[in-house]
């Protein structure tokens, strides 16, 4: 695992994933719509690839030559009905099949642990699309990792609790730094392949 592409690389968690990958010594292709949103400390350390996940050709070009894929797609706090995230992921998965790239980690949500009618109403639409994303991953034979984080906070990096295929989230919140790092590290953790991973910040002593 030397070269990875990160989709959603300028969101809150996406920037943290880019930074974690750079620190790990990986060659990073940052797929983004607006290069201005990539922070100055990262601009000269990554390959900037301008594109849109809803455009299959640009996605295919971004996946070309990569060893792994990190997906941190978001809606910029918009909670309206959408299928953009799942459609984008399907384009990514199709590109991976075409380019023979096998390994992908994807950020979803701990609301997927809930029964659909127990999800808070304002998060229903977004959770429905996260569920479509999860189903799309399960339909593949790839080395996929589905990460179900709880509330993502701005807290600094700290000790973390990671659980494999839990029945519910191990805690209420996770630092964006911890989440970004896990999304990158999961690409080289075969025990995570084909599984749900959830995490939270460890309680402070």
Question: Could you characterize what this model shows?
Answer:
The chain has 205 residues and is an alpha/beta fold. Helices cover 32% and strands 23% of the residues. It is built from 6 helices and 10 strands. It has helices at 12-23, 40-43, 56-63, 84-99, 124-138, 176-185, and strands at 3-7, 27-32, 47-50, 68-71, 103-107, 143-147, 151-153, 160-164, 173-175, 195-201. The protein has an 8-stranded mixed sheet, sandwiched between helices. Strands 7-9 form a two-stranded parallel ribbon. Helix 1 (12-23) crosses helix 6 (176-185). The radius of gyration is 16 Å and the shape is globular.
Helical content class: 25-40%
Largest sheet: 8 strands, mixed
Radius of gyration: 16 Å
Q: H/E order of the elements?
A: EHEHEHEHEHEEEEHE
Strand content: 15-25%
Alpha carbon gap, first and last residue: 35 Å
Main sheet strand line-up? 3-2-1-4-5-6-10-8
Indicate the mean pLDDT: 96
Form type: globular
| Count of discrete alpha- or pi-helical segments spanning 4 or more residues | 6
Structural class based on helices, strands and sheet pairing: alpha/beta
């Amino acid at each position: 695992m030397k070269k990875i592409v990160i989709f959603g690389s300028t969101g809150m968690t996406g920037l943290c994933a880019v930074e974690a990958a750079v620190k790990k010594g990986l060659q990073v292709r940052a797929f983004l719509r607006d290069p201005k949103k990539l922070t100055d400390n990262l601009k000269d350390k990554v390959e900037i690839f301008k594109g849109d996940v809803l455009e299959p050709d640009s996605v295919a070009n971004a996946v070309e030559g990569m060893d792994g894929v990190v997906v941190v797609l978001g809606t910029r706090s918009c909670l309206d009905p959408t299928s953009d995230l799942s459609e984008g992921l399907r384009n990514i998965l199709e590109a991976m099949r075409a380019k023979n790239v096998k390994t992908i980690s994807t950020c979803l949500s701990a609301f997927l642990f809930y029964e659909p009618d127990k999800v808070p109403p304002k998060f229903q639409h977004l959770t429905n699309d996260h569920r479509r994303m999860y189903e799309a991953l399960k339909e593949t034979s790839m080395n996929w990792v589905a990460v179900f984080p709880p509330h993502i906070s701005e807290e600094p990096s700290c000790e973390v609790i990671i659980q494999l295929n839990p029945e519910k989230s191990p805690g209420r919140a996770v630092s964006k730094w911890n989440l970004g790092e896990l999304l990158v590290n999961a690409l080289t953790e075969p025990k995570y392949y084909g599984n749900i991973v959830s995490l939270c910040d460890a309680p402070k002593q």
